[in-house]
Amino acid sequence: MLVAERYEKIVQLVNERGSIRVTELSQLCGVTEETIRRDLDRLEDSGRLRRSHGGAVSVKDQPIPWRSQPEIPFTEREIMHAEEKQRIAEEAVKLIEPNQRILLDASSTAWYMARLIPDFPLTVLTNSIKAAAELGGKEKIEVISTGGIMAHRSLSFVGPLAERSLESYHVDKAFLSFKGVHLERGLSESNELQARIKHKMIGMADQVILLADASKFGIQAFTQVADLQRVDTIITDRRLPAHDATPFTDRGIHIISV
């Protein structure tokens, strides 16, 4: 069982039962209790459960105004909520027209998009190593990579060089994902380097399309990037309840649920 799969199993068990002990999770997941304790610490940091003495309790029905998320390696992110991300990517690709200039960030959902984009005339600017490699086999698409410092966990380019390279371009549409999407606190990222480059990306696009599965809503990560007023469209999945989506549409943001 991969680490990300174990995380999902732990959260599912905690939510189903309301609470569960470390010893039982160890048996069900086939790993040591020490490993489970580390998993629970990580999942608590990401706001997905709450630690208790000897185990964990569900936060599914508890309002949590402040949550933080560490940066998760790309190899784990690409399989977390994979079905939802695939559907979001499929819908996002429908918004792309031939001869447009678009921007893809280094999110796993944007990588799914890169795999699905047809080979038609298009200019794609990206700081994602994975997305650039995926698009490299499509001859009609011009791919521009930002360059910069490689962030190993996200397989992305960040830092001053990446930020400066963005200043030379303007795009029709930017497809972006964030660690946190919060109604009052806006868009946020796990660290300052990611926040800085995504702030630049938002400022260089005519339209900003937010790719966010339901797990991102209500989260405030470490560093704020921008207010929600910079977002034109949000593509999310059906797990986001209608009453949670309404405040965003009330602010003039178009919501697409897939």
Topology (elements, then pairings):
Elements: H1 3-17, E1 19-21, H2 22-29, H3 33-45, E2 50-52, E3 55-57, H4 74-77, H5 82-93, E4 101-104, H6 108-116, E5 122-126, H7 129-135, E6 141-145, E7 149-151, E8 156-158, H8 160-166, E9 171-176, E10 180-182, E11 186-189, H9 192-203, E12 205-211, E13 223-226, E14 233-236, H10 242-250, E15 254-257
Parallel strand pairs: 4-5, 4-9, 5-6, 9-12, 12-14, 14-15
Antiparallel strand pairs: 1-3, 2-3, 7-8, 10-11, 11-13
Helix pairs in contact: 2-3, 5-6, 6-7
Summary, kept brief:
This protein has about 260 residues and is α/β, with parallel strands linked by helices. It is about 35% helix and about 25% strand. The strands form four sheets. It has a seven-stranded parallel β-sheet, with helices on both faces.
- The number of strands is 15
Topology order in helix (H) and strand (E) letters = HEHHEEHHEHEHEEEHEEEHEEEHE
Instruction: Note poorly predicted spans.
Output: 63-69
Helix content: 25-40%
Class from helix and strand fractions: alpha/beta
Cα-based radius of gyration, to the nearest Å: 19 Å
Number of helices: 10
The biggest sheet amounts to: 7 strands, parallel
Describe this entry's structure for a reader:
With 258 residues, the chain is an alpha/beta fold. Helix content is 37%, strand content 24%. It has 10 helices and 15 strands. It has helices spanning 3-17, 22-29, 33-45, 74-77, 82-93, 108-116, 129-135, 160-166, 192-203, 242-250; strands at 19-21, 50-52, 55-57, 101-104, 122-126, 141-145, 149-151, 156-158, 171-176, 180-182, 186-189, 205-211, 223-226, 233-236, 254-257. The strands form 4 sheets. Strands 6-5-4-9-12-14-15 form a 7-stranded parallel beta sheet, with helices on both faces. A hairpin with a 4-residue loop joins strand 7 and strand 8. Helix 5 (82-93) packs across helix 6 and helix 6 (108-116) runs parallel beside helix 7 (129-135). The model is unreliable at 63-69 (pLDDT under 50).
